[in-house]
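Forwarding the complex inputs:
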Amino acid sequence: MALLLRTFTRQGTCLFRPQFGILCRHAVPMGTTANEEMNTFWAKNNKLNRPMSPHLTIYKWSMPMMMSITHRGTGVGLSGGISAFALLALVLPGNYPYYLDLIHSLSVGPALLSLAKFGIAFPVSYHTLNGIRHLFWDSGKGFKIPEVYRSGYVVIVLSILTSIAAIGYM
Amino acid sequence: MAAIVRISSVCHRGVKPLFYRSSLLSRTLVAQQKDQDCPYPLTATIHGSSSLYAASVSKAASLHWTGERVVSVLLLAMGPAAYYFPGPAVDYSLAAALTLHGHWGIGQVLTDYVHGEPKIKMVNAGLFLLSTVTFAGLCYFNYNDVGICKAVALLWSK
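Prediction (whole assembly, two chains):
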C-alpha cells in the first residue's frame, strides 16, 4: 500500500480530476442511515443557530410542486376528517341517521349542497388519482419530465370530472 | 483491495510530501486506472459498507416503505369493494386500512417537518394516540351504528 501512495505522489497525479484519465469512486465507509444523517444535519445547524436559506419564497413554483403539496394537503385533510368523525362517533350520544337528519333539516340550498359534495369528493378523488400516479413512480415508471407533466394534467382533469360526476350521482 | 489514503494527499496537483498534510480523512478511496500511461496495474474493488462497517444496517426502513405501498394498493382495491359489496367485512377492513394508511402518511409528514429527538418522540406518541382513537372510533361506529359503507351511501343520498 505504501507503494501505491508513493506511486501517486511521485507521479503527481490527482485522482479527483477525471480528465487525467483516472476515475475514482468513493465507497461508503460509514453505515449511517438517511434518518441519522438528517438528524445530524438538523442538530448541527440548530446548534450553530444558522438561519435557513429562503426556498419556498424564492423558487419558482412549478406544476409538479403544486400537485405534490396538494397531495400532502388533501392527505392530511382527509386524515383529519376521518379522525374527527371517529372521535365524534365515540363522544356524541345520538346515532348517525339522527345527526344526518339534523343536517338535512338545516335546508341548505342545492347550490351549497353541490358545493359541499364537491368539497368532499374532490380531495378523495385527487388524492386517490395522484396516489396511483405515485405508485407508478414507485414502480420506476414515468419520471421523464414531459411524462410527469402529462400524468399530472391527467390527474387534475380526471379529479375534477369524477368529482362533478359524483355530485350528479344519486 | 481497499486503499485507505489521505484524501488531501491525492487531491492536490503536483508532488506533495505525504506527511505534511494536516487534515486527515480516512475514507476509502478506490481508484480505477483507465489510462495507459500509468504503468502500475491497479486492481481495486468497491467495498460496500458491509465489509468496513461491522454492524449490519437494519431493513426496517425498507420494509416500512414496502408496507406503505402494500396498504395503499389494498386501500385502492377497497373502493370498488365498498361500492359493490358493502357490509361488515368491508367496513372493518376499511377502518383498518384507512387508519393505517393515515397513520403512516402523517408519520411521514412529521418526519419531514419535526426535528430534534425529544420533539420527534412527542409528536409520534401523539400520532399513535390519535390513530388508536381513530381506529377505536371507526370500529365502534361499525359495531354500534350503520357502518362506514352505509354511512357514505346515506350521506350521498341527499
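The longest helix of chain B spans residues 117-144.
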